[in-house]
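A favour, since you know our structure tokens better than I do. Go ahead and set the record down below.
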Amino acid sequence: MSESYAELRRRATARLSEAGVENAARDVELLLRWATGLDAPALVSRAGEAATAEARVRFESALSRREARAPVSHIVGGRAFWGRWFEVTPDVLDPRPESETLIAAALERAAGAAPPARVLDLGVGSGCLLGTVLAERREATGLGIDASRAALAVAARNMAALEIADRAEMRLGDWLDGLTEGFDMILCNPPYIARAEMDGLSPEVLEHEPRIALTPGGDGLDAYRRIAPDLACYLRRGGRALFEIGPDQAAQAATIFAAFGWPHPIVHRDMDGRDRCLEYRRKP
């Protein structure tokens, strides 16, 4: 007799745990939903039923890939971010819950401030930041810049899936170089992992995510050094710029921006209480 869904879950969880996968039970649940096309309540209600042959084949293939430490997002083709689904491939950084800190800050509206009309996302990657802000702010338009053509293709598909492609332009570029317009909001989640920290990353990150999106080498702060000198040229009066940072980089990154006339950032913390986002506001 074929294994039931409950038996599949138990066996798979033990298998991933033995392979050293953290949160094995959570990953098994996600892969099982993907393989079967069933949501969580349906899997609970059918726990004792025998899994279909098709579901077993899909699930075993997914389980083998996860056992080899492929990210779940690469197996199922995407990840939820701020309540929306974004396609994810090995060409882009996997959207992380920590980056929702930047979105929460971006969507805050200061008293008397107008919503952003024009948004720039530097290092757009999957488009999760720009796509989320544009989906939440229907009156805004945006531009996503990335040095990777493959990443821009992923971002463009995500904009189309969100039905905001007519308000979101994707452009090949190197940070602020060559831009000729100003923006009401600038978003940026740059590569900021120091070279010395790279070897300590999990196999899911180190072996499957694009290195260019993870680290610039050195101390990890090069992107801020590139952007800070020209930020005032592209952030409109009354505008806001938000930069994701590593949890121990707030002071160092703030020092870089302060040298170019941007003192006293607002520091936003993530769900674990770690410094995660520097926000700069330009006076009207």
Notes: The longest strand covers residues 235-244. Strands lie at 78-81, 84-87, 118-122, 141-146, 168-172, 183-188, 235-244, 266-269, 275-281.
